[in-house]
Task: structure prediction
Amino acid sequence: MDYQWYPGHMTKSIRQLQDDIKLIDLLIEIVDARIPYSSRNPDVEKMCRGKARIVILNKADLADEAENRRWMNYFEGQNANPILADARKKATLKRLLPLVNKACQDKIERNKRRGIINRPMRAMVAGIPNVGKSTFINSFSGQSAAKTGNKPGVTKGKQWIRLNKQIELLDTPGLLWPKFENQEVGLHIALIGSMKDENLIPEELATELIRRLKDHYASMLADRYGIDEAKDPAHILEEVAIRRGCLKAGAEPDLVKAARILIDEFRSAKIGRVTLESAEDLVP
Ligand code: G4P
Result:
């Protein structure tokens, strides 16, 4: 399977993003805590030079807690102002506000020296599809300023949401595209659901997921599906089909159905909290 992105969407979102970045002091980059490496955009650093930055490790509620801590350490080491978040919870905002002040400190000082006092910092959120950008904006706007779901063109015009006296948030999230430096990155993006599912082959995706679970979270497979995790991934998928009663005519295991169950239960963390990429792999 070849994991692809769409060049047409990309050109449009680059242009939009470049325009929006001119308006802001702070970029809040949302990544998926289950794949913090693959869900980051390779060019965002360059595009946001001179702007304050925060990295939100979102969907932290679905990710492995030990790995969450490692990723926090990693991003802290990069001075990226990281925060673990569940964008659906308003409590996230309380933890985020002090971080915004810290990230924007230089700009606030510069403004003060120029006699600009009490000008709110302007921020925008950006991230690849499905990481929780609209959820984040909705949670903090107090009203339905941005609709959840990945529907291009939902919000029109520039609107700013006042989070408090010091911060205003652009109501339109910036759409970033993932890096596709290798198939592993593409696979991870497909697994968390940031790629259109209709372009994917569920059995292949599920087999790759099983391979990774076997390596790092083998007991989850046994606990959830009552299968022997020592078997090879293709056999495990077959067993999941049988255990879950996914059978075709002639009692053949329905692998597509079983694959969809497995992928859904991974995405919703019913299997357990899984992180597919370890920060330890990035530390030299
Ligand atoms: P986007 O704007 O970046 O494309 O993402 P969006 O806010 O639409 O969020 C995508 C899905 O992720 C939504 O689920 C949303 O509820 C969920 N989500 C966002 N943040 C979090 C989080 O921190 N934790 C968890 N567990 N879920 C989060 P959905 O509407 O059900 O869509 P889908 O999952 O069916 O695609």
Summary: Confidence is low (pLDDT under 50) at residues 143-155. Residues 9-171 form a domain with the Rossmann fold fold (CATH 3.40.50.300).
